[in-house]
Amino acid sequence: MAEHHVLIVEDEEKQALLVQDYLKASGFEATIISDGGDVIPFVKNNQLSLMVLDINLPNKNGIEICQEVREFSQLPVLMITARIEEADRLKGLQVGADDYLCKPFSPREMVARVESLIRRSVQPAFKPINDYFFDATNLTVTINGISMSLTQIEYRLLNLLASQIGQSFDRQTISATLYDDQRVVSNRTIDSHIKKLRKKLFDLTNVDLIQSIYGVGYRLQPLASPVSKSTDSNQQIQINNSADKTQS
């Protein structure tokens, strides 16, 4: 039995079968679903390592599916889109997709992206960095005893910023950390990731922890005071990605 099970959500049969063939040839178990309305029950009832998700689907589109998945799971999502506009790609990332590919794409590149996302998702858990405790298994960070759920991109971004509190990181360094394949990523895409992470940290701490340094990049400020939402250090709350629905 294959170690990793990938769900392919694609209504174009030839495209779906091509993706499935390449994934199986690379050692993955791969299941195809063509109807967007069938995805959520399948995700909830199966152990999956990743989902390859097309945007244009019957009954429920990929954006809606990704939003719903993020309400209960940090399953890595590789979004597939035929739309080439940057705004469309950003929309997928904003609702919680971990990466994207634009059609037409190389099946070999798709497999490489899948392998990279799965590799990131199985990093060692519970790594303390300064005042932040990172759990790679559940993609959470704990600050002063309170936990917050992150996407894979947000997890890697905060991990980088927290590694050197007060040090500025330029967008090129951030991009190289977030993506393993040396792709060219626009400043707007990096800024979008920063915006989402900044809001989550503010919702958790009531402090604007990420500073923009004009002409340089971004840095993480030291935690000035304990989280004010609760004085009980044992309290665990989840600020999950459903909050992102208000961002667009």
Automatic annotation (TrEMBL):
InterPro entries: CheY-like_superfamily, OmpR/PhoB-type_DNA-bd, Sig_transdc_resp-reg_C-effctor, Sig_transdc_resp-reg_receiver, WalR-like, WH-like_DNA-bd_sf. GO terms for biological process: regulation of DNA-templated transcription. Residues 226-248 are annotated as: Disordered. This is Response regulator. Residues 5-118 form the Response regulatory domain. GO terms for molecular function: phosphorelay response regulator activity; transcription cis-regulatory region binding. Residues 227-248 have a biased composition (Polar residues). Residues 124-222 form the OmpR/PhoB-type domain. The keyword Transcription applies. Coiled coil: none annotated. Residues 124-222 bind DNA. The modification 4-aspartylphosphate is found at residue 54. SMART domains: REC (SM00448), Trans_reg_C (SM00862). SUPFAM superfamilies: C-terminal effector domain of the bipartite response regulators, CheY-like.
